[in-house]
Amino acid sequence: MTQTLILKLGGSLLTTGRDLMQFLSEYAFVKRTTRQMVIVPGGGPFAESVRALQRRLEISDDTAHWMAVLTMHQYGLFLASGAPETPVLERLEDVRATRTGLCILLPYRVLRADDALPHTWHVTSDTIAAFIAHKLGENTLIKLTDVDGLLDENGALIDHLQAQELLGIEHTGCIDAQLPRFLLEHGMSCVIVNGRHPERVIAVIEGRATICTRIE
Q1: What is the DSSP string of 142-178?
Q2: 7, 46, 107, 212: which could form a disulfide with 193 (CB 3.0–4.6 Å)?
Q3: Contact predicate 2/34, CB 8 Å
Q4: How many Cβ atoms from other residues are within 10 Å of residue 146's Cβ?
Q5: Residue 89 phi/psi, 5° resolution?
């Protein structure tokens, strides 16, 4: 039976993201894994440009939201250039039909069809990726970023915590403020892993122990 995994590939990995895509492509196709890996791109510096524009100009939250979602497409196309054989999809139906290997999902059409998320900067590509995982019937999100995970007040890595512990904290480290609430509401979990260490990403994909933060 095919296992579907939703991986949010963050904009913080801009300089290494294409190499990671090639690595995952080789893992998916050369090793012929039966897992389906769906990459949801972040917004990164593309989204930050929208945030900066909204501060300078009169741009409504609704308009900024959709502009920011479209920056995920820009980053997704950039990532796809690192693994040109990887399908770039825009509909959940196409993801379901693919079933195996690696693909990139651009989220604009999915969100336009089901506009359930708040239009606020508390909701960024983290919560959008979790939303897509939920729409696909999956209960886990894997977040690939440029840090090892969440840190405690002493700077030590937190290997496991409950989403409940993050509620009401606006600055939650490397995740957006809405993600913990979304995880709680939908009975989901999230694994945060450093994408600069591809071997850790594969360990998470294969369900093995590695350096990461798990939010339940």
Answers
A1: EEEESSSS-B-TTSPBP-EE-GGGGTT-S--SSS-TT
A2: 212
A3: yes
A4: 16
A5: -115, 160
pLDDT digits (tens, 9 = 90+) for 17-71: 999 999 999 998 776 667 899 999 999 999 999 999 999 999 999 999 999 999 9
Mean pLDDT of the chain: 94
Q: Residue 27 is encoded by which pair of tokens?
A: 């893992």
Q: Reduced to 3 DSSP states, what percent helix, strand and coil does the chain have, rounded to the nearest 5?
A: 45, 20, 40
Contact between residue 126 and residue 182 where contact means Cβ atoms under 8 Å apart: no
180-189 mean pLDDT: 97
List pLDDT tens digits, range 159-168: 999 999 998 7
CA distance 147 to 54: 28
Residues 6+ apart with CB under 8 A from 81: 18
| DSSP three-state, residue 47 | helix
Task: Write out the two tokens for 22.
Answer: 């090639």
d(CA 12, CA 184): 25
How far is CA 162 from each of CA 148, 151, 181, 213, rounded to the nearest angstrom? 17, 14, 11, 11
Give the separation between CA 90 and CA 73, rounded to whole angstroms. Answer: 10
Q: Are 125 and 133 in contact (CB under 8 A)?
A: no
Q: Looking at residue 153, what is its pLDDT?
A: 86
